[in-house]
Amino acid sequence: xxxxxxxxxxxxxxxxxxxxxxxxxxxxxxxxxxxxxxxxxxxxxxxxxxxxxxxxxxxxxxxxxxxxxxxxxxxxxxxxxxxxxxxxxxxxxxxxxxxxxxxxxxxxxxxxxxxxxxxxxxxxxxxxxxxxxxxxxxxxxxxxxxxxxxxxxxxxxxxxxxxxxxxxxxxxxxxxxxxxxxxxxxxxxxxxxxxxxxxxxxxxxxxxxxxxxxxxxxxxxxxxxxxxxxxxxxxxxxxxxxxxxxxxxxxxxxxxxxxxxxxxxxxxxxxxxxxxxxxxxxxxxxxxxxxxxxxxxxxxxxxxxxxxxxxxxxxxxxxxxxxxxxxxxxxxxxxxxxxxxxxxxxxxxxxxxxxxxxxxxxxxxxxxxxxxxxxxxxxxxxxxxxxxxxxxxxxxxxxxxxxxxxx
Length: 407
Hints:
Layout: E1 31-36, E2 39-44, E3 57-61, E4 63-65, E5 69-73, E6 79-89, H1 93-97, E7 102-110, E8 120-122, H2 126-129, E9 134-139, E10 146-151, H3 158-165, H4 182-185, E11 193-196, H5 208-216, E12 220-226, E13 249-254, H6 255-262, E14 270-273, H7 275-292, H8 310-313, H9 320-333, E15 338-343, E16 358-362, H10 369-378, H11 382-391, E17 402-406
Parallel strand pairs: 1-17, 3-12, 3-14, 4-11, 14-16
Antiparallel strand pairs: 1-2, 5-6, 5-8, 6-7, 7-10, 8-9, 9-10, 12-13, 13-15, 16-17
Helix pairs in contact: 6-9, 7-9
């Protein structure tokens, strides 16, 4: 049954001056709020390892933010902004970024009323001018459903085109234009797989020094990849959360990762770096159920995606180990070394966690799905945590400070 949660119950006052507009000079000098068994402590992110159990299993999202915001101009002079969301032709991220000459992407189109048809050309400089980069509208849809075909003449990949022409799509609530610093700082130091239009911001605090302190404590570090879509910024407009639609996001994990997760011993804690990692890890359980029950997508080649309300409307009897065994059997049967799947999962109060024990995360917007996820972890104590952060000078949202929350 879908939970009946009133979104106004998850509101709190967030003055604009508490939103971090720029990153700190040093990533790990951010504040760290630690919540464990109802007790709140203040520290610095550089001391993160001091608060984590030895021999834990820590999971990072190694997605990489792409400079996916592009500005084109119509012959009439109208400026059209295009934010690339996910590839359509070719559909695979790696193949699309490697495309030469043309490709098509689902996109958010700004000033869409002034672009009904016809090619538009990139507003660029001398370097980008050599590309003859242009766009045409294949399908005009609502919100995030338009499809744009890109073409360019130079013998370079689409990834290189974006690097030359694109801007990093920083969050709209920063209320400023993208600056040079965002190219490096709106990116984790371990980012690897291109595809996100928003950073998994909990990871922005990590430095090589912090990683070394984790290694010294024998905390195992593993990676998953969930490409963060623009849906992460979509506000909840319905009165109750069951009226909000989550957008599907692709994620992938290696066969070796699944085996490592299976090897986690009773009592060994799983630490999730960021809400995206949590959504991926918790989705794995349901993907395993799909593998066991042979629920495939329309192509019949990959497990069916996890539905938004699936955890609340189904009660699978399988253990986590059985679910992961189902994934391994699926991968071996299809000679695959990597699981690729999709999820629309929403984690709200009442959710029963299958994998994650400890959450590392930033401070989120009022009345957001991410704040509901925090409440699913710590219950009503989210109010104490956020009040403490507001009273003690913590910086909020993407470039803000961090917290580590124990369930």
